[in-house]
Write a structure and sequence with these properties.
The protein has a 7-stranded mixed sheet. By secondary structure, the chain is of the alpha/beta class. It has one domain: Metallo-beta-lactamase, Chain A (4-Layer Sandwich), CATH 3.60.15.10. The chain contains 5 helices and 14 strands. Helix content is about 15%, strand content about 30%. The radius of gyration is 17 Å and the shape is globular.
Length: about 260
Amino acid sequence: MKVTILGSGTSTGVPEIGCTCPTCTSTDPKDKRLRCSGLVEVDGVRILIDCGPDFREQMIRLNDFKPIDAVLVTHEHYDHVGGLDDLRPFCRFRDVPVYAEPFVAQRLRERIPYCFAEQLYPGVPRILLEEINPGIPFYVSNSNGAKVEIMPVRIMHGKLPILGYRIGRMAWVTDMLTMPDGEYGLLQGLDVLVMNALRPKPHGTHQSIDEALENVKRLNPKETYFVHMSHHMGLHEEAEKQLPLHVHFAYDGLAIEL
Protein backbone atom coordinates (compact mmCIF):
# COMPACT_ATOMS: atom_id res chain seq x y z
CA MET A 1 0.00 0.00 0.00
CA LYS A 2 1.09 3.54 -0.78
CA VAL A 3 -0.47 6.64 0.77
CA THR A 4 0.34 9.99 -0.82
CA ILE A 5 -0.46 13.17 1.11
CA LEU A 6 -1.93 15.46 -1.54
CA GLY A 7 -2.75 18.20 0.94
CA SER A 8 -1.87 18.57 4.62
CA GLY A 9 -3.46 21.93 5.42
CA THR A 10 -6.64 23.12 7.06
CA SER A 11 -9.52 24.92 5.34
CA THR A 12 -7.60 28.17 4.77
CA GLY A 13 -4.47 26.45 3.48
CA VAL A 14 -0.96 27.59 4.32
CA PRO A 15 0.04 30.31 3.61
CA GLU A 16 -3.19 31.93 4.70
CA ILE A 17 -4.29 34.87 2.57
CA GLY A 18 -3.03 38.14 4.01
CA CYS A 19 -0.88 36.60 6.74
CA THR A 20 2.78 37.55 7.19
CA CYS A 21 3.62 35.22 10.07
CA PRO A 22 6.86 33.19 9.91
CA THR A 23 5.03 30.07 8.74
CA CYS A 24 3.11 31.81 5.97
CA THR A 25 6.24 33.57 4.69
CA SER A 26 8.47 30.51 4.99
CA THR A 27 10.33 29.37 1.87
CA ASP A 28 10.40 25.75 3.06
CA PRO A 29 8.16 23.69 0.72
CA LYS A 30 6.99 21.67 3.74
CA ASP A 31 5.34 24.85 5.06
CA LYS A 32 3.17 25.17 1.93
CA ARG A 33 0.00 23.23 2.71
CA LEU A 34 -2.89 22.69 0.29
CA ARG A 35 -6.29 21.62 1.60
CA CYS A 36 -6.41 18.15 3.15
CA SER A 37 -6.62 15.13 0.84
CA GLY A 38 -4.88 11.83 0.21
CA LEU A 39 -4.46 9.15 -2.44
CA VAL A 40 -4.32 5.50 -1.36
CA GLU A 41 -3.05 2.86 -3.80
CA VAL A 42 -3.47 -0.78 -2.88
CA ASP A 43 -3.54 -3.89 -5.09
CA GLY A 44 -3.90 -1.70 -8.17
CA VAL A 45 -6.91 0.17 -6.78
CA ARG A 46 -6.56 3.97 -6.50
CA ILE A 47 -8.68 5.62 -3.81
CA LEU A 48 -8.96 9.38 -3.30
CA ILE A 49 -9.89 10.55 0.20
CA ASP A 50 -11.73 13.88 -0.08
CA CYS A 51 -11.70 16.10 -3.15
CA GLY A 52 -11.23 19.69 -2.06
CA PRO A 53 -10.79 22.96 -3.96
CA ASP A 54 -7.07 22.29 -4.47
CA PHE A 55 -7.67 18.92 -6.19
CA ARG A 56 -6.75 20.20 -9.66
CA GLU A 57 -3.43 21.61 -8.43
CA GLN A 58 -2.73 18.44 -6.44
CA MET A 59 -3.20 16.24 -9.50
CA ILE A 60 -0.98 18.47 -11.62
CA ARG A 61 1.73 18.27 -8.96
CA LEU A 62 1.34 14.49 -8.69
CA ASN A 63 1.84 14.18 -12.47
CA ASP A 64 0.47 10.63 -12.49
CA PHE A 65 -2.69 10.65 -14.59
CA LYS A 66 -4.35 7.28 -13.98
CA PRO A 67 -7.89 6.19 -13.12
CA ILE A 68 -9.42 7.05 -9.77
CA ASP A 69 -11.44 4.03 -8.71
CA ALA A 70 -13.21 5.60 -5.72
CA VAL A 71 -13.56 8.89 -3.88
CA LEU A 72 -14.24 8.62 -0.15
CA VAL A 73 -15.90 11.73 1.26
CA THR A 74 -15.40 12.41 4.96
CA HIS A 75 -17.97 15.23 5.18
CA GLU A 76 -19.69 18.01 3.30
CA HIS A 77 -17.48 21.01 4.12
CA TYR A 78 -16.19 22.85 1.07
CA ASP A 79 -12.52 22.25 1.79
CA HIS A 80 -13.25 18.52 1.42
CA VAL A 81 -15.65 18.46 -1.55
CA GLY A 82 -15.03 21.69 -3.48
CA GLY A 83 -13.05 19.94 -6.22
CA LEU A 84 -15.58 17.31 -7.29
CA ASP A 85 -16.21 19.06 -10.61
CA ASP A 86 -12.50 18.67 -11.40
CA LEU A 87 -12.96 14.91 -11.57
CA ARG A 88 -13.97 15.49 -15.22
CA PRO A 89 -10.63 14.41 -16.78
CA PHE A 90 -10.74 11.14 -14.83
CA CYS A 91 -14.11 10.31 -16.35
CA ARG A 92 -12.22 9.57 -19.57
CA PHE A 93 -11.23 6.30 -17.91
CA ARG A 94 -14.58 5.45 -16.28
CA ASP A 95 -17.45 6.93 -14.31
CA VAL A 96 -16.04 7.85 -10.88
CA PRO A 97 -17.77 6.32 -7.82
CA VAL A 98 -18.06 8.78 -4.92
CA TYR A 99 -18.91 7.34 -1.51
CA ALA A 100 -20.62 9.39 1.20
CA GLU A 101 -23.13 8.84 3.97
CA PRO A 102 -26.76 9.60 3.05
CA PHE A 103 -27.14 13.15 4.40
CA VAL A 104 -23.82 14.17 2.82
CA ALA A 105 -24.84 12.61 -0.48
CA GLN A 106 -28.03 14.70 -0.40
CA ARG A 107 -26.01 17.89 0.22
CA LEU A 108 -23.87 17.08 -2.81
CA ARG A 109 -26.94 16.59 -4.97
CA GLU A 110 -28.18 20.00 -3.86
CA ARG A 111 -24.86 21.80 -4.38
CA ILE A 112 -23.94 20.40 -7.80
CA PRO A 113 -27.30 19.29 -9.20
CA TYR A 114 -26.03 19.46 -12.79
CA CYS A 115 -23.91 16.37 -12.04
CA PHE A 116 -27.01 14.33 -11.18
CA ALA A 117 -29.59 15.57 -13.68
CA GLU A 118 -31.46 13.08 -15.86
CA GLN A 119 -30.05 14.74 -18.96
CA LEU A 120 -26.35 15.53 -18.48
CA TYR A 121 -24.87 18.20 -20.72
CA PRO A 122 -21.49 17.48 -22.36
CA GLY A 123 -18.47 17.85 -20.12
CA VAL A 124 -20.22 17.25 -16.81
CA PRO A 125 -18.30 14.85 -14.56
CA ARG A 126 -19.90 11.43 -14.50
CA ILE A 127 -20.18 10.79 -10.78
CA LEU A 128 -21.72 7.63 -9.37
CA LEU A 129 -22.89 8.66 -5.90
CA GLU A 130 -22.90 5.68 -3.53
CA GLU A 131 -24.35 5.92 -0.02
CA ILE A 132 -22.53 4.26 2.89
CA ASN A 133 -22.89 4.09 6.67
CA PRO A 134 -20.42 3.99 9.58
CA GLY A 135 -19.51 0.56 10.86
CA ILE A 136 -20.66 -1.20 7.68
CA PRO A 137 -17.75 -2.22 5.43
CA PHE A 138 -17.96 -2.01 1.66
CA TYR A 139 -15.72 -2.83 -1.30
CA VAL A 140 -14.30 -0.70 -4.09
CA SER A 141 -12.76 -2.16 -7.21
CA ASN A 142 -10.79 -1.21 -10.30
CA SER A 143 -11.54 -2.06 -13.93
CA ASN A 144 -9.49 -5.26 -13.60
CA GLY A 145 -11.69 -6.57 -10.81
CA ALA A 146 -9.27 -6.09 -7.90
CA LYS A 147 -11.22 -5.31 -4.70
CA VAL A 148 -10.35 -3.43 -1.52
CA GLU A 149 -12.42 -3.41 1.66
CA ILE A 150 -13.20 -0.04 3.28
CA MET A 151 -14.48 0.41 6.83
CA PRO A 152 -16.19 3.76 7.56
CA VAL A 153 -15.69 4.94 11.14
CA ARG A 154 -17.85 7.47 12.98
CA ILE A 155 -16.01 10.48 14.31
CA MET A 156 -17.24 13.85 15.56
CA HIS A 157 -16.25 17.18 14.03
CA GLY A 158 -17.41 19.21 17.01
CA LYS A 159 -21.13 18.34 17.00
CA LEU A 160 -21.14 17.30 13.33
CA PRO A 161 -20.98 13.53 12.69
CA ILE A 162 -18.48 12.74 9.93
CA LEU A 163 -16.52 9.73 8.69
CA GLY A 164 -13.01 8.42 8.97
CA TYR A 165 -11.90 5.42 6.93
CA ARG A 166 -9.87 2.30 7.62
CA ILE A 167 -8.24 0.56 4.65
CA GLY A 168 -6.32 -2.54 5.68
CA ARG A 169 -3.80 -1.53 8.33
CA MET A 170 -4.07 2.18 7.50
CA ALA A 171 -6.67 4.66 8.72
CA TRP A 172 -7.44 8.24 7.66
CA VAL A 173 -9.09 10.48 10.25
CA THR A 174 -9.51 14.18 9.60
CA ASP A 175 -11.41 17.07 11.22
CA MET A 176 -11.94 15.07 14.40
CA LEU A 177 -12.54 16.61 17.78
CA THR A 178 -13.77 13.43 19.48
CA MET A 179 -14.64 9.85 18.62
CA PRO A 180 -17.31 7.68 20.26
CA ASP A 181 -15.74 5.12 22.58
CA GLY A 182 -17.17 2.23 20.59
CA GLU A 183 -15.28 3.28 17.44
CA TYR A 184 -11.80 2.94 18.94
CA GLY A 185 -11.94 -0.81 18.50
CA LEU A 186 -12.20 -0.35 14.73
CA LEU A 187 -8.85 1.43 14.68
CA GLN A 188 -6.69 -1.04 16.58
CA GLY A 189 -3.66 -2.79 15.05
CA LEU A 190 -2.77 -0.03 12.60
CA ASP A 191 0.57 0.25 10.87
CA VAL A 192 -0.19 3.84 9.78
CA LEU A 193 -2.63 6.41 11.15
CA VAL A 194 -3.15 9.68 9.29
CA MET A 195 -4.95 12.04 11.67
CA ASN A 196 -5.73 15.72 12.09
CA ALA A 197 -3.97 18.07 14.49
CA LEU A 198 -4.95 21.69 13.89
CA ARG A 199 -2.79 23.82 16.19
CA PRO A 200 -1.29 24.00 19.69
CA LYS A 201 -4.32 25.74 21.28
CA PRO A 202 -7.67 23.96 21.74
CA HIS A 203 -10.35 24.47 19.09
CA GLY A 204 -14.11 23.98 19.13
CA THR A 205 -14.27 21.45 16.30
CA HIS A 206 -10.74 20.10 15.69
CA GLN A 207 -8.13 18.36 17.80
CA SER A 208 -5.27 20.37 19.19
CA ILE A 209 -1.81 18.84 19.05
CA ASP A 210 -2.11 17.62 22.66
CA GLU A 211 -5.52 16.07 22.04
CA ALA A 212 -4.20 14.35 18.93
CA LEU A 213 -1.22 12.96 20.83
CA GLU A 214 -3.55 11.56 23.51
CA ASN A 215 -5.47 9.70 20.82
CA VAL A 216 -2.22 8.40 19.36
CA LYS A 217 -1.45 6.88 22.76
CA ARG A 218 -4.89 5.31 22.94
CA LEU A 219 -4.83 3.88 19.41
CA ASN A 220 -1.12 2.96 19.48
CA PRO A 221 -0.42 2.73 15.72
CA LYS A 222 3.10 1.92 14.59
CA GLU A 223 3.43 5.28 12.81
CA THR A 224 1.27 8.42 12.88
CA TYR A 225 1.23 11.35 10.45
CA PHE A 226 -0.59 14.55 11.36
CA VAL A 227 -2.53 16.49 8.72
CA HIS A 228 -5.11 19.31 8.49
CA MET A 229 -2.72 21.75 10.15
CA SER A 230 -3.04 25.52 10.29
CA HIS A 231 -0.25 28.08 10.16
CA HIS A 232 -0.50 28.28 13.97
CA MET A 233 1.28 24.93 14.17
CA GLY A 234 4.49 26.75 13.29
CA LEU A 235 7.41 25.94 11.03
CA HIS A 236 7.53 22.29 10.00
CA GLU A 237 11.23 21.85 10.71
CA GLU A 238 10.96 23.24 14.25
CA ALA A 239 7.61 21.70 15.19
CA GLU A 240 8.64 18.24 13.99
CA LYS A 241 11.42 18.16 16.62
CA GLN A 242 8.85 18.37 19.42
CA LEU A 243 7.01 15.18 18.46
CA PRO A 244 7.55 11.78 20.05
CA LEU A 245 9.14 8.90 18.15
CA HIS A 246 6.90 7.39 15.45
CA VAL A 247 4.78 10.55 15.23
CA HIS A 248 5.36 12.96 12.33
CA PHE A 249 3.98 16.06 10.71
CA ALA A 250 2.94 15.14 7.19
CA TYR A 251 3.60 17.50 4.29
CA ASP A 252 2.28 17.86 0.77
CA GLY A 253 3.73 15.22 -1.54
CA LEU A 254 4.81 12.85 1.24
CA ALA A 255 4.56 9.21 0.09
CA ILE A 256 4.08 6.61 2.85
CA GLU A 257 4.78 2.99 1.99
CA LEU A 258 3.41 0.13 4.10
